Amino acid sequence: MTWQPFDAADVASAVADALSDSKTLELIGGGSRRAFGRPVEADVVLDLSGVSGVVTYQPEELILAAAPGTPMAEIEAMLAERGQQLAFEPPDFGPLWGLPAGRGTLGGAIMTGRGGPRRLTAGGPRDHCLGVKGVNGFGESFAAGGRVVKNVTGFDLPKLIAGSFGTLCAATELTVKVLPAASDTATLAVLGLGDDAAMKIMSQALGSAAQVSSAAHLPADIARVSAAAGVFGQAAVTLLRLEGVRPSVAARVGHLAQALESAGPQILLDREASIAIWKQVADAAWFAGGADTVVWKLSVPPSLGAAVGARLAGELSGRCYYDWGGGGVWLELPGADHAHAARVREVLQEVAGGDGHATLMRAADAVRATEDPFQPLAPGVAALTERVRAQFDPQGIFNPGRMYGGA
Predict the structure, then answer these.
(1) Which of 79, 130, 333, 338 suits 358 as a labelling partner, its CA being 20 to 30 A distant?
(2) C-alpha span between 330 and 321 (Å, rounded)
(3) CA–CA separation, 351 and 308 (whole Å)
(4) CA distances from 392 to 140, 164, 168 (A)
(5) How many CB atoms lie within 10 A of CB 340?
(6) Start-end of H helices in 194-242
(7) Secondary structure element (H or E) that encloses residue 346, with its range
């Protein structure tokens, strides 16, 4: 059964009906992220794709408010016309899950909380979410945050709701911060580094005065099928992105190239080539369409990226690449009924201890129903998480079990 509201009043009415009928709701927008997290077993699908449209866009104030079903493609095109962007660089994981590109919505981007390659320097969705309007699990409409960039009054509920996977409320409007888009972009590519050496180079670059906005490393098997494969040849490549006005970018590229001269051969990618390859990095494009494989995203201290990624890829006959200066490890492994979860988390614990976590980004529904897609919570954190959820949704009607079994 599917209910499709078309405005905030319809959403409130749908939640009230669900409460009165003791029904649970699966919240979706474009549907492109349904395969992310545990499968939801709900009585009714609440399709929010009809709750769509930009409510207000004030370029001079750097804010945009829109309904959750508003397509990201529509928002990004509108911002581009004014030379602005969502700096958290929302990825499009539709193809990763075997769906067409371009189906994502603003609600999905904020509620799943995934940021792109610029996350180390620009933050993620929660850092750019200024306000939320929605309906909680009591059937009450509420508003939190505001439409100004600096709003520090009271609890920062928008940051709590961002990344909650729709388990706290049914959002009806989201306000986000927008920023000027860089007028120029260039990527300095260092060729032929091993994984360990690449971690050191990325750390050096990110800590330099060159203001590197993103750093990623593609082992040779990934690099040779990338957007710039023709210039990389058969070599691994370490990517260092610089953004800003053209004279500044050119000067910073020159200084960085000189500082890294002894690291290995270098190639400079221009704006067009940079945009193409960083979109591949953001969207995990090299793992798209592999329905027979499983995909993990591991978060570790950047210095430990190779110790986890290369080890697991070697042990389990997989592939990996490194984002966020090595702190984000994308890992594709052969399909398995258990998604290799025990071994992935065993190695993660062994290498990173409590400083790492693993997220199962792609696996069959049956696998995601039995293996925790998200890093299991410590008992104290789990108890706190449940208390927070109960304050918003005491009857558990929103996306039951989406993040953790029984929650």
Answers:
(1) 130
(2) 5
(3) 7
(4) 10, 11, 5
(5) 24
(6) 195-206, 220-223, 229-232
(7) helix 341-352
Among the listed residues 60, 310, 107, 50, the one whose alpha carbon sits nearest the alpha carbon of residue 198: 310
Determine contact, residues 62/177, Cβ cutoff 8 Å.
Answer: yes
| Angle separating helix axes 195-206 and 305-315, nearest 10 degrees | 150
Which tokens go with 310? Answer: 């290369």
- 198's CB contacts (< 8 A; 6+ apart) are 190, 217, 236, 238, 306, 322, 326
**Residue 188 CB: number of other CB atoms within 10 A?**
24
CB 252 within 8 A of CB 211: yes
pLDDT string in tens for the chain (407-residue length): 999 999 999 999 999 999 999 999 999 998 899 999 999 989 999 999 999 999 999 999 999 999 999 999 999 999 999 999 999 999 999 999 999 999 999 999 999 999 999 999 999 999 999 999 999 999 999 999 876 555 445 568 999 999 999 999 999 999 999 999 999 999 999 999 999 999 999 999 999 999 999 999 999 999 999 988 888 988 999 999 999 999 999 999 999 999 999 999 999 999 999 999 999 999 999 999 877 999 999 999 999 999 999 999 999 999 999 999 999 999 999 999 999 999 999 999 999 988 999 999 999 999 999 999 999 988 999 999 999 999 999 999 999 999 988 66
Which residue type is seen at 44? V
**Rounded to a whole number, what is the distance in angstroms from the first to the last CA of the chain?**
22
332/5 Cα distance (integer angstroms)? 38
Tokens of 260: 């890294």
CA distance 227 to 272: 11
What ranges make up the beta strands (E) of 73-182? 84-85, 129-135, 141-145, 170-177, 179-180
SS3 content of the chain, % helix, strand, coil (to 5): 40, 25, 40
Contact criterion met (CB below 8 Å) for 18 and 26: no
CA 104, distance to chain mean position in Å, is: 12
Contact by Cβ (8 Å): 136, 393: yes
For 126-139, the DSSP string reads: HHHEEEEEEE-TTS
- Record the tokens describing residue 46, joined without a space: 């609440």
Gyration radius of the chain over CA positions: 21
